[in-house]
Amino acid sequence: MTARTAITALSARIFARDRRAGIALVTGLGMVPLFLSAGIAIDLSRVTQFRVALQQATDSAALAGAAVYNSTGNETAAKTAAQNYMSQAMATLPKNSGVTYTATPGTPSTNGAVTNYTVAVAAKASVPTTVLSFIIPTVPTNVGATGLNPVITLTASLGNWKSSAWDANTIYWYVVPTNGSLPAASAMHALFTNTGPAPTSLPSIQITAGQSIGFALKNVTGGIHGYGPNQYGSAQGHTNWLYSQLSPPSKNAYPTFAKNCALQVVVATSSNPSPTETAGSCYSATPANATVNCAQTPGKSIYFFWNDMGGGKDDYDYNDAQYSITCPSMPANSDFSANSSGKVLLTQ
Fold first, then answer.
1. What is the pLDDT of residues 255-280, one digit of tens each?
2. Could you give the CA distance from residue 190 to residue 175 in angstroms, rounded to a whole number?
3. What sign has the CA pseudo-torsion 284, 285, 290, 296?
4. Could you identify which of 17, 163, 282, 325 might form a hypothetical disulfide with 261, taking C-beta atoms 3.0 to 4.6 angstroms apart as the criterion?
């Protein structure tokens, strides 16, 4: 091998090594964007997962607060319900650097009248990064939700009032307790009585969308004209309470009597706009809509026909207390119409 040939061969080997090193360098530099892209994708996925979970917790907390916020005076209970939900939900959230939250009750009003009961929940948190931690250690996340419990106003009418009772009868309305128990005396609101003239006007009935109202008939045996004990065993002057939420409504007054001889309920329709009672018999069950939830009957009038079960012999006439309750009509785009289940809503 000549000196020239040896130099040429050595140069070729050196060039080959330099080319491989260059390729490795170029390849390494090309991997940096791929590495960063993968890191960004991983961390964004974690942040998104956390944000979704935090939003779900905030939504549920706002609904939990609004569900118990149905009158002025229980703001503390509403706030506590929302805070308790968030406190429990925090343990189930993906990894984070800490969550802070607030729950704020509110009562939007129109012309001084409350239209909704709301609970706004806001939450803030930081999510730690992994691949991008040397650039952005944490990513801030803020979410919020407002639960809304709409107020609706029902009207009562005595347009079909009549009574042939010898007993004294008074009708009360009340919000049906969520646990199904009977209402306390302080929760009863008198509508009218047959012991005096019918009122010239009736108070409006305001409830929230998740509430139902029931009616109680306070019946005093022989309270207008004495006739002795009635056929169900109630003595002269004795008070009997009948509740529309019970099956049968007389269950509290006459617990051994299984049939409904006390109440008929009819929802007015275009073909039957002014329903009347059907006399002469008892029924096997309490009728539908004996308790009124306007989410079920928006824009409808519900007619109630009570038979007080008084007299030496029951006449089953269902004309001892009669009235109707009308639920408001709701526009197609209203919060309430979107709330067909009669529950609270999310507004954001």
1. 999 999 999 999 999 999 999 999 99
2. 13
3. negative
4. 282
CA distance 307 to 145: 48
Which tokens go with 136? 């952005």
Distance of CA 254 to the CA centre of its chain: 34
End-to-end CA distance of the chain: 86
Reply yes or no: is the peptide bond before residue 248 cis, omega within 30 of 0. yes
State the alpha helices, DSSP H only, in the chain: 3-68, 75-89
Q: How far apart are CA 45 and CA 90, in angstroms?
A: 19
Beta-carbon contacts of residue 301 (< 8 Å; ≥ 6 apart): 157, 267, 268, 324, 325, 326, 327
Please provide the DSSP assignment of 64-133 as one string: HHHHH--STT-HHHHHHHHHHHHHHHGGGSPS-S-EEEEEEEE--EETTEE-EEEEEEEEEEEEE-STTT
Domain ranges (residues) in the chain: 3-150, 158-330+337-348
162 band by pLDDT with thresholds 50, 70 and 90: low
Instruction: Look up residue 269 and give its two tokens.
Output: 């329709």
Q: How far apart are CA 283 and CA 315, in angstroms?
A: 14
